[in-house]
């Protein structure tokens, strides 16, 4: 008999067919309590769960007594209660690597668009303000040969460092618990304390996961340490930055700009001051959102689920110890 799975994300036809060949699939629109109630029997039976977004916590697990594998279409897994999964011996699969280069491209796009004010000036031209030669009011700041500080020197941080160092001749700083030998040998990257990184970087780029340790890692005191013409980029998770403190720093003119792909609340509320500050570039959490990469993530998530249901957690497993 095929294992029963709950699918809470639309898949392309070919990937759905691949999943359905191996599993008995019940498609639901999301993991809300209403959805769990409506499909109670399917949730109760399911051995697998595949999708993205939504909280997977003790309450959901209580409604899924047969669950063995969660497969997330994402690398970040802060929406999963991993301790609760471990306690129930449920393994969590995710999709690292396939999205790394695309997210680094997004971060570089934020670096360039904040520094050179691309969206702001695009809107300015389209609004008919380009009536004569531009002047200092339209100038930006250089990116090349500046210092880029990375918080989260993992897969995405490394791919960003590669672009910044080889493409733009930038000096790379990073903050990490341990020396990153590859970062040092490939990019001459220097490890430093958070304080030093904030004081010295022209661009502070966040590609950190959200954990208890990283929650509000960047608050008022940290923003105060940054250079007045520095730029903050966040493509990790919104709550790594204290958004109220960031807004206050931007409103007080303490930073050149911010480039944000992630927010404390998503979608970002329409009345957020971030949306009316001209020096803030906002993106709707599109770090990995290209056709190619999103397909690759869904393909990996399907294969991860099939492999893990078959007992194979060699690749892309967050908590292989849960099987023990
Ligand atoms: N914006 C997006 O669409 C998007 C897309 C993909 C990933 N992300 C986010 O980026 C994160 C990183 O992805 P990755 O594939 O590079 O993961 P990764 O695990 O390879 O890298 C994360 C790095 O952060 C480091 N780290 C963790 N806590 C730290 C701390 N307190 N201080 C210093 N360093 C710390 C880890 O040691 C690791 O090197 C994901 O967890 C996710 O939250 C966002
Ligand atoms: O973590 C990830 O993969 C992205 O943020 C999409 O959720």
Automatic annotation (TrEMBL):
Alphabetically ordered keywords of this record: NAD, Oxidoreductase
Gene3D superfamilies tied to this protein: NAD(P)-binding Rossmann-like Domain
Domain D-isomer specific 2-hydroxyacid dehydrogenase catalytic: 6-319
Protein name: Glyoxylate/hydroxypyruvate reductase GhrB
InterPro entries hit by this protein: D-isomer_2-hydroxyacid_DH, D-isomer_2_OHA_DH_cat_dom, D-isomer_DH_CS, D-isomer_DH_NAD-bd, NAD(P)-bd_dom_sf
Native species: Pantoea anthophila
Domain (D-isomer specific 2-hydroxyacid dehydrogenase NAD-binding): residue spans on this chain: 108-287
PROSITE patterns according to UniProt: D_2_HYDROXYACID_DH_3
Pfam families, A to Z: 2-Hacid_dh, 2-Hacid_dh_C
Family in the record: Belongs to the D-isomer specific 2-hydroxyacid dehydrogenase family.
CDD domains the record matches: GDH
Gene that this polypeptide is encoded by: ghrB
């Amino acid at each position: 008999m095929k294992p029963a799975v709950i699918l809470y994300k639309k898949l392309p036809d070919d990937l759905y067919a691949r999943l359905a060949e191996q599993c008995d699939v019940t498609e639901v629109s999301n993991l809300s309590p209403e959805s769990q109630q409506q499909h109670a029997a399917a949730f109760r039976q399911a051995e697998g769960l595949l999708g993205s977004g939504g909280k997977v916590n003790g309450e959901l697990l209580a409604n899924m007594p047969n669950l063995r594998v969660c497969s997330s279409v994402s690398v970040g897994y802060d929406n999963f209660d991993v301790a609760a999964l471990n306690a129930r011996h449920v393994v969590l699969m995710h999709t690292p690597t396939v999205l790394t280069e695309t997210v680094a491209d997004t971060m570089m796009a934020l670096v360039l668009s904040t520094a050179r004010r691309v969206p702001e000036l695009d809107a300015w031209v389209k609004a008919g303000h380009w009536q004569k030669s531009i002047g200092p009011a339209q100038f930006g700041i250089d990116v090349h040969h500046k210092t880029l500080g990375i918080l989260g020197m993992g897969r995405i941080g490394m791919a960003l460092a590669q672009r910044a160092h080889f493409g733009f001749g930038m000096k790379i700083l990073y903050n990490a618990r341990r020396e990153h030998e590859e970062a040092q040998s490939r990019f001459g990257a220097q490890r430093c304390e958070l304080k030093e990184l904030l004081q010295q970087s022209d661009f502070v780029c966040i590609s950190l996961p959200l954990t208890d340790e990283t929650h509000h890692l960047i608050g008022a005191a940290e923003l105060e340490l940054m250079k007045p013409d520095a730029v903050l980029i966040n493509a990790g998770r919104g709550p790594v930055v204290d958004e109220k403190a960031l807004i206050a720093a931007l409103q007080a003119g303490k930073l050149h700009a911010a480039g944000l792909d992630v927010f404390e609340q998503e979608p970002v509320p329409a009345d957020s001051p971030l949306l009316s500050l001209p020096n803030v570039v906002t993106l709707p959490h599109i770090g990995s959102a290209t056709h190619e990469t999103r397909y690759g993530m869904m393909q990996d998530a399907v294969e991860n689920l099939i492999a893990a249901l078959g007992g194979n957690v060699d690749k892309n497993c967050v908590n292989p110890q849960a099987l023990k």
